[in-house]
Amino acid sequence: MPPTDREATATADIADADTPWLSDAEQCAWRTYLDASKLLMHQLEKDLQPFGLTNNDYEILVNLSESADKRLRMSDLATATLQSKSRLSHQITRMENAGLVRRENCESDRRGLYAVLTEDGGEMMQKVAPHHVASVRRHFIDMMMPEELIRLSAVLKPVTEDLRGKRGRI
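^ thats the sequence. predicted structure below, dont judge the formating
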């Protein structure tokens, strides 16, 4: 039986009374962080477009280029890029079609697959990385003083560590 109007109102009042709403300062900090994050990622993506890459493409290329033998198990790459295995598989298919990566079987586990950076993918990284770093510098790093960057890292580190710890339990 659905709640009556009086019961619904009472439930809403209890939820409001028990909800630790954000203060004006907390709301400002939260919304500023959201706006900055979205705008920065949008700008970085826009700056990758001339190369035919997305932020996800670039992140995958970075992870592969920094890994031993320029390869990672698909499951490890999914974890590193915070993507579902299914979404990553579709992403890798698109990147395979562009010649940037290839899949290889894992000899130690017949069910496992590696994503491997191709020569063309490595060349793309060498071409794009300087432009990407310049974009990050222009739109993020150069907007702050060195001590602000250190403080920002210190402030965000506990958030990152907490969420990475919870990711394994999701």
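The mean pLDDT is 91.
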